[in-house]
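Note to self: keep these together.
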Amino acid sequence: MLTLATTTPGEPEIFASLQGEGPSIGRPSVFLRLSRCNLACRWCDTAYTWRFTGDNRPHRDAIAFERGENQITLDERDVALRLLAHPQDRLVVTGGEPLLQAPALIRLLTILKEARPRLHVEIETNGSVPPTQALDALVDQYNVSPKLAHSGNPADLALVPERLAHWAIEPRAFFKFVVATPDDLDEIAALQAHYAIPSDRLFVMPEGTASVLLRERSAWLAEATMKAGWRFTDRLHIHLYGDTRGT
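Structure:
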């Protein structure tokens, strides 16, 4: 069984859209948003996947979500049928933290790959949870977003050395760092130097859930990206649809 986020109570967050971030930005994709996360970012724009009533971990909005309204559990075959109803050959599994549900994901992706052999599978992860060997064999791309100090997560939970070292040498893994202030750039540079992260697999992205703020931060972040030799990614879905579920 898979535990999914919802768009509205009882309706799983499965939808077709353009990938809004990272190396696949602009590509038509079908999205599966899973619930639950092992981290708690202060600025998380999908806090409804983890900050349920009773969870007092800090978040800038301080909203507690009712679990029953924001989470649903479905059989993998049911999820597969819903995904296959969309024609896109690119699946983006996001969250929350998808790798927390590896056994169920293996069953789902096995069904999907048998039905649609050309399906390209991307998993979006915070980089702190290792993929199992069986799951890894079914994944085409990892979008790894390690959480910097400004996320509010303890470094020993968010920046696990052996995990970062693994992702740095994994050619299917693309790093995506969320940037709120110029001070974050020094932390990224230090991580890149320590783990030898290739610049062509290192993206920086402005933090924000409104176009105005994203454009403001993009102005100086684009300049810094050029100087560092990294890659820049916007948040296309925010500009197109706003900060909404199912987009």
